[in-house]
Structure formats: C-alpha cells, structure tokens
Amino acid sequence: MDAPRAREQLRRRYLFPPDTEAPQDREGYARPEASTAVEKKEKPLPRLNIHSGFWILASIVVTYYVDFFKTIKENFHTSSWFVVGGALLLISLSIACYCILYLEWCCGIEDYDVKYPTLIPVTTATFIAAGI
Q: What is the spatial distance between Cα 100 and Cα 109, in angstroms, rounded to a whole number?
C-alpha cells in the first residue's frame, strides 16, 4: 500500500457521517446512549495489514534461522508425541483456514463466529493441545 493511500484511509477512519454525531444535553455534554451509536457504526480493521505482515515475515525468518525443517527431519521418528502435536496443529490450522478463506472470503460471512459459535473454541483448544 502506498503512503498517500494509507494516510487517506487513516483520515477517513476517524471521520463520521453527520448523522452519527452525538446529541448533547442542555449543558453541552454528550449523552451516554449516543456514544454507543457512534461506536456501532465504526468499521473493523482489515485482517491483512502492515502489523500482521510483519509477524508473518518474522515467523518465517525465525523458522529459517533455527533450522526447524532440518530438526523435524532428523527427529521425526523418535517421538510419537510429536506426531500427535503435529496432527492437532494441522487440525487447528485447517479450521482457521476454513473460517478465513472459505467462510469469510468465498461465502461472505464476516461474523462467522456468530453463525458458527463452536469453531473458535475448538480451534483454540486444538492449538493449545498441540502446544502442550
């Protein structure tokens, strides 16, 4: 993303349409119920941004410098727990890809955690179990 476009998106993020201005009471203070109406109309941040790109790049660099794949190749048959952890990690990543790629991008369901409430806890549980 180029710098002028990023600046323009940053400016637009904090601008509200005129109908979302908070009504004020006689003293000039905004009423509390009005601030929630403004918060509901805000758009969520995009999933792919500079911050997430940095963390993806950092994970690739760390994986390369610790010789992760060489260690996997040498120690694959020594422990059955490694295979169980790898399978659980694969399940967790496949559920995450299903949520992000298929449900959000293909089907257009942005709130997949509302429509399918068990996906997030199952993904989190399998990821934690894989880490243990």
A: 9
Question: To which H or E segment does residue 53 belong?
Answer: helix 50-65
3-state helix, strand, coil in the chain (%, to 5): 70, 0, 30
Q: Sign of torsion, CA 38 99 114 119?
A: negative
Instruction: Tell me the whole-structure pTM to 2 decimals.
Output: 0.51
Q: pLDDT tens-digit profile of 53-62?
A: 898 899 999 9
pLDDT digits (tens, 9 = 90+) for 4-21: 777 677 667 766 554 555
- State the Cα angle at 106 between 86 and 50, rounded to 5°: 70
Mean pLDDT of the 63-69 span: 87
What CA–CA distance (Å, rounded) separates 12 from 6?
Answer: 10
CB-based contacts of 31: which residues, under 8 Å, 6+ apart?
22, 23, 24, 25
Handedness of CA 104, 110, 116, 117 (dihedral sign): positive
